[in-house]
Hints:
The protein is of the alpha/beta class and 301 residues long. The chain has helices at residues 41-49, 70-74, 92-102, 108-118, 134-146, 164-177, 190-196, 214-218, 268-277, 292-300, and strands spanning 3-12, 15-25, 30-34, 56-61, 64-65, 77-80, 152-156, 182-186, 199-204, 207-212, 226-232, 247-252, 257-262, 282-288. A hairpin with a 2-residue loop joins strand 1 (3-12) and strand 2. Helix 3 crosses helix 4 (108-118) and helix 5 (134-146) packs parallel to helix 6 (164-177).
Amino acid sequence: xxxxxxxxxxxxxxxxxxxxxxxxxxxxxxxxxxxxxxxxxxxxxxxxxxxxxxxxxxxxxxxxxxxxxxxxxxxxxxxxxxxxxxxxxxxxxxxxxxxxxxxxxxxxxxxxxxxxxxxxxxxxxxxxxxxxxxxxxxxxxxxxxxxxxxxxxxxxxxxxxxxxxxxxxxxxxxxxxxxxxxxxxxxxxxxxxxxxxxxxxxxxxxxxxxxxxxxxxxxxxxxxxxxxxxxxxxxxxxxxxxxxxxxxxxxxxxxxxxxxxxxxxxxxxxxxxxxxxxxxxxxxxxxxxxxxxxxxxxxxx
Length: 301
């Protein structure tokens, strides 16, 4: 195993940021931590890195107790905090050499050159960090987290505030560097989780409320099994749709458009035969899939 938390609790005054959290992240996984603001995501990451200590519980990284070997553990972890603190008056290469020196790397110049190429900073390396766009600052933050070649990479909101083009670039960068590392990231962007993560951990009010693959998480919706969007050309009594076998509810939309809710059976064929039998013309017939965002909101509520 790579990262393991056992019954970890952390409180700030009367508020428990983490409440008896137990979770394991295996070597080579990309795991996304989801949760509303104040759920405990950043606290969990800071405890894993040894930045803060839990009130109770055990944390292991690569089988080693974080509380007993904090300095050694930090050499195995790369960490990008949410606010990405950087020395904006330094040049990129200058800053990365400084970080490499903190880790006492033996071949600093060689490693800095490698990491600049890996993170796509070559074209901007002549600039000071303060002159960079948000996307390139995020690259610098990831570069400093990777400079010592850690086995575990922890990224707190790595794509926050990026435009769509920058987001795609950072996503590809994370995917490339994750091939031989364990990656734990937090984000509010559901597309990021679906595009990058092998597994999701949903945390709410300091407790883990779900953990599974993105596809399996989407199957957890208890509201309805399926939703069909259907549009008819003709006007007819919409309640007659309830006579279709498997239909549990309907919701009228604009004009002759309806959302039809039902059980696990695919309703599209039944709706088509209903239209034929009643002399109706179907203009739209589309099965709506459950989205990760909808299921996430349902779970945390």
